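Q: Hi! New to this. If I give you a protein sequence and the SMILES for fe (ii) ion, can you show me the bound structure?
A: Yes, paste them in.
Q: Okay, here:
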Amino acid sequence: MAAIDAPALGSGIGYRPQFRADLFAHRDQIDFVEIIADHYLDASKEKLDELELLKSHFPLVAHGLDLSIGSAEGVDSRYLDKVAALIERIDPPWWSEHLCFTRAGGVCIGHLASLPYTQEAIDVVARNVEFVRRRIKTPLILENITCVVRIPGGEMDEPEFLSRTLEATGCGWLCDVANMHVNAMNFGMGPEGEFECWPWDRLVQMHYAGGRERNGVLIDSHDAATSEAVWTLHDRVVAHAPVKAVVLERDERIPPFSELIDEVARARMTMVENGRWR
Ligand SMILES: [Fe+2]
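A: Thanks. Here is the predicted structure of the protein with fe (ii) ion bound:
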């Protein structure tokens, strides 16, 4: 059974203002757009106008950065109110956040920090998701992140932690295949070997992106073309599970828009070949 009863959106892109003009000039080649929620929470009139323009040309989903769904101290209700207002404004079929924490002890740490893979952390996330749901009815899906270090004291591996968290919260999954690849490479596991362990029955959306290697460590830097290794994983996931939407993330070193269109088209082709998109 699908994690969320929502329409398929196809092959989209994460919106960045740097390619705004190109995006509108090629709008027939982009099925939908993912916006960064945080860019519109304390928005100027200019940003709100941009949002209306995006909304009038594309189906939208929102992707949040700073909800900190894994904070033991709970979710910041003022931040949540702003996200709720945004979700009400754009009315997406779902919205997403990272399975991580970004605040601790009242301090914003400015980074997506990995949670310990423990039952206690799952209970915290479940409690916070319940709190969020009372404010926002639109389905929330959670994304797997890259981790710089594994927190000691873990009681399970990442696929089990994610699976049990999604089970406990009832949330769908935003599978970032680039993050999955980065963690697999940096921690010496092959995503191929443990492929079956991930919660495919919860899959709703995907992210893919290019990164780079620094000092022998893969970084999820969103500043390069998607690697063939990530494409291989992307294609395998699309073939394996009924994904509704895939999104290209590119933040730095943005190339000519035609190169981004080529990646979006390649992702769409895989969706079409596997009956995930028309
Ligand atoms: Fe991502």
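A: The domain at 10-273 is CATH 3.20.20.150 (TIM Barrel). Let me know if you'd like me to explain how to read the tokens.
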